[in-house]
Amino acid sequence: MLETDQKLNRSVERAVDVMAALARADRPVSVTDLEQDLSLSRPTLYRILYTLEKKRVVVSAGDPQRFSLGARIVELARPWLGDNPVAAISQPYLATLWNETDETVALFVVGDRNTKVCIQELQSRQALVFTRGTGIVEPLTMGSSGKSILAFTSGDTVEEILRGIGKKDDRARVERDLVAIRAEGYSLTEGEVIAGAVAMSAPVFDRTGTVQGSVALYGPETRLTGAHRTRCLDCLLTAARHISAAMGHRPAAAAE
């Protein structure tokens, strides 16, 4: 095993830093954004980005050009995703939820550096659908699926993440959301990540009571309303409970 900093390959290290920065971003980013985030020179960034784009790890679009992670990230992550116990346990319950609701359903797990990763998504058969995409990586503070994980994460981690939110009003809003999610046991948002979309999610726990991820369901506001919304939420909560139980989780009330 290599143990000294002198044996690090700087080009590889910088490429990984670029991919991590793209994973943290909640939108495609410009070279200027990356320059400020990573303190790397513009020529170095372009060289890394074009190399990664050639290998389909990064994609670019627009004028001015903006960059995001490409589909090959999912291919590279597949061995890790396949080894994740939540993924295997959740599959039948996600399939049931999908069949019962006919909406897009997904499974998110905790990633590195306070992020969430979508490791499975079943797209709705409806004509109008919203999807996020398997392999997408986003901050835990972003959207229903992330905050339903964050609400039940250990207190020290939550405090660290909240301190990292720059704007006081944004931090207060997230804090209020987390309090409500803990009280209700689920998160429901309207238009928070995608305009016109409703997203709902519930946490899943392992046998130690540690939150491992969240089950999410999302679709257009025009369809996810009234009795259909209520039914989807009930089915979602049932799926989350079944996945947690299959992982050995026993709610405190049942354990007493």
Helical region count? 10
Question: Between the first and last Cα atoms, what is the distance in angstroms?
Answer: 47 Å
Radius of gyration: 19 Å
Kindly name the structural category. alpha+beta
Helix fraction by DSSP (H/I, runs of at least 4): 40-55%
As a percent range, the share of strand residues is 15-25%
Secondary structure tally: strands: 8
General form: globular
Largest sheet: 6 strands, antiparallel
Quick overview of this protein structure:
With 256 residues, the chain is α+β, with helices and mostly antiparallel strands. The chain has helices at 10-24, 31-38, 42-54, 72-83, 85-101, 143-150, 155-163, 168-184, 226-246, 252-255, and strands at 58-61, 66-69, 104-110, 115-122, 137-139, 187-190, 197-205, 211-220. It has a six-stranded antiparallel β-sheet, sandwiched between helices. The protein has a two-stranded antiparallel sheet with strand order 1-2.
Keywords:
two-stranded antiparallel sheet, 256 residues, alpha+beta, globular, six-stranded antiparallel β-sheet, single chain, 8 strands
